[in-house]
Amino acid sequence: MVDESRAIVLVEAEELEGFFASPGDDAPEVVFRRAKLSDERPRQVEDAVLEIVNGRRDKVGEYLVGRVIFGGFHPKRVAFRFFGDRCEFPEAAAIWRRWASGPPLRAGEWLRLPVRHHPAWLHVVQNSWFATGHGSGGCADAEMMTLNGASVVTKAGFYCALGEAARGPGGYFGSNLDALVDCLRSAPAGKRPATLLWNDFFSSEEALGAEFLDAVTAVLEEFGVIVEAR
C-alpha cells in the first residue's frame, strides 16, 4: 500500500485480510500479513492506494482506498483502519494471487472456476485492464471473435468470454452494456472486430435470456460487428 500524495510505500505484504469482503461484512481493520512496514509510519494517510504487484514488482491491479489510520504493528502483521470502500468480491483475493503469480493466463482459465466466481474474475479483469494503462480504447486483437455459447451461462461469464475473444486471456471488452459501448466507440472504426461467431447461440439464449442477447447483438451491430449465430 502506498501514500499516493507523497509517493512512498507504507507497507508491503504477502497476504491481506478484511479488504476482499462480502458487502456489509466490514471488519474493523484491514490486516497485512507477512508484512514489511516502511520506516516512515504516518499515523494517518488521506490518499492511500492499494497496489497488487507481481513477482517482478510490476503493478497488475490497484484500489484507491483514501483515508487510512495506522492501527498497530506486530511481528509480520500490520493493521490499518480503512474508511473507504472495500472490494465486494471475496473470491477476488485468490484470483489476484493467480494473476500475480507469474505464469501467463491461459485461454478459458476462468471457466475452471465455479460459476459463482465469474463476477470476481470479471472484476479483476476490468481492474487490471485499467490499472495497467489500457483504458477502454484501443482495438481488439482479433478481426473475428469466437464465443462458445455452451460455456456462457452467466452475464459475467459472457463478458469474460467476450474480452478473451477480443483481446486474449485476461482481456477486457466491457463488463456491462454501457462499458461495451465505450469499448466499441473508443476503437477506431477500421480496427473494431468485424464478426462475432457465436457457436451454440441458443444455449446462451436459454441461459441468459433473449432480451439480454438482443440488447448485446443490437450494440455490436450498431458499431458494425456482424453477429453470426450458430
From TrEMBL:
It comes from Amycolatopsis plumensis. InterPro entries: Barstar (IPR000468), Barstar-like_sf (IPR035905). Residues 144-222 form the Barstar (barnase inhibitor) domain. Belongs to the barstar family. Pfam families: Barstar. This is Barstar family protein. It comes from the Bacteria.
